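User: Sequence in, structure out. Go.
Assistant: Echoing your sequence, followed by the structure tokens.
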Amino acid sequence: SSRLAATPPSPAPFNSARSQGIQRPGAMADPAIAKYLSDNIGGLLSKGLSEMAIAQPSDGVDFLAQWLKVHIEQEEAKGKRAEEEAELLEARKKTTAKLEEQAAKKAAREKAAAEREAVWQNALAKFNTPDTTFEPGFWQELLVAASTLTSAKSAYLGLVEEEGLAEDGDLPAMEGPLIRYVEALPGSEAMKGRVLRRDQGVTWGAVTENPTEEVPFLYRPPQPEVAEPNPDDPDAAPEEPPPAIPYLPVAVPCVTDVPEVHYFEVTRLGAFLAVPLVYNSYYTEEARQEAKKFELEKKETEEKRKEAQEQYDAAVQEAMDSGGQEAADAIEKPPELEPQEEKVMVLPGKVVRMVLCLDTLGTNEPIDASKYETAMELSSAIGKCKEATEVQLVDAQARAEIDDAAREKLKEEIAEVRGRAAEQFVQEQQEEEEDATDDARKDEIAKKYAYQRAFTVLKELREAVFELKKWVVAPPEMLNLVATLCRMYGYTSKDLFPPRKDKLDWQVLLEVLSQHLFERIEETDPTGPRTGLEPEQKLSAIKEKMTEFGTEKIQELSPALELLLTMLEAAVAYRESHLQLRKAEYEAEKAEAANAEEPMDPPEPPEDDEDLVEILVA
């Protein structure tokens, strides 16, 4: 301050200062300039001057200069710290975001893994639940579960065809045994229908019972160790080793390392696993008969027990009335009322060998060996589920077959409907018969209305026929009746047989035994021309086949089946009567031509109906 007082500034000329926009000392500042100075350095200078006033240095200018320098350095350091903190905050944000992204990916992976695990765990639990009823869609569920478990790219199911395959168009017949692939995951559909011969590939090891060490590429699960004999108890029986697993999976970690692997397409890198799926089927006539026998014996036992109970109750009451409680207590219970050990139904089974195939071909990825045994569990569980369901359904069919009350009720219903149908066409039939010129024509008319009555009854009671679809085992007479009726109405072997099979199968006929069959019967005229027939569709073949199933046998099976038999018999009789009438007409024309006074060409044999041609030739 003394320095400032000692050297006052020289005043500038008034006009020069004003011309430069500079205000003289002591003059009031321009508001804009004052605001500029206040905004930019006013606060800072005030703070510095306040510090200087407190310190009162000898050299105020130097103090203020140093203060401003320190202030600038502090502000720069503060700015740098802010910048570093901002960079650190940004780095932290990036690190947090990256960690969150990694955590999200990990959570997504864990969720996906849990979902994949849930797929096969849920399937395994479902197959193992005793109340689960097997459905055909379970095969696809197995493929999904197994492929999810093992991360396999392709999954498909093979069936060992013991009897081989029949010829089908360009496909030749093939002797069995062979493996035919019957189910495949979406993406593996090309495998469906393909066949592996007995001399091909490595898959056969999985369906070889009790394989020896010579069977290659088998995975043998580790067996628990058998406990050593107790030296303190030499008489103790040694622990039995666990039973041997009868069927083992085939595992090939790298298919290109194994020349024996069979490729249906080009060679590709990857792994292959074939898991045995072997179970007993009870959809056989032997099992049906055994189930009926069991249920009949059970029914007879229950009836005897009921009768014994009634007799015992009557004897106790009589004793009570005559001699009181002491006499009643003396009545001995018959053995039928004693607690009986419940018998368990055991049905004869037929071994079905299937194989669950999984591969990663084209990805060159391994199949985790730790998943092999779980895949075996899946196959075993679905096999047991299929067995249990078949036993239940065969038993249910057996109980339905011996239900005398239901059988009698259906018979009464059939008789009632037939009575109404007999009255329905009386007038129409009489009018047509009155117009008939000969007995042959009258016979055809009678057969025609018998046919119409048979269809009327069948149509009204078709729900009783559809109840047969609940059957899971059809005796040969039932199979032949349904198939023969279908052939009468134009169904071919391709419609009635499984693909590449020459034997009737009830599961296929179940699809045919539908509303469509009734519609075809209604739309078909049995007297119409029939050409392009298979040998089994000809009338002569149908009549011969009918000799294999008589009315009594069919009625014994089910009154509903007798409806189908009556329909078939009526159709055959009506058609045969019509063909005989046409034959008589042709022979009459032929005789007329032969006996004519003037030469006449004989009539051309009819060729519009193969059944008629066969009759004329005979």
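User: And one key feature?
Assistant: Residues 1-22 have pLDDT under 50 and may be disordered.
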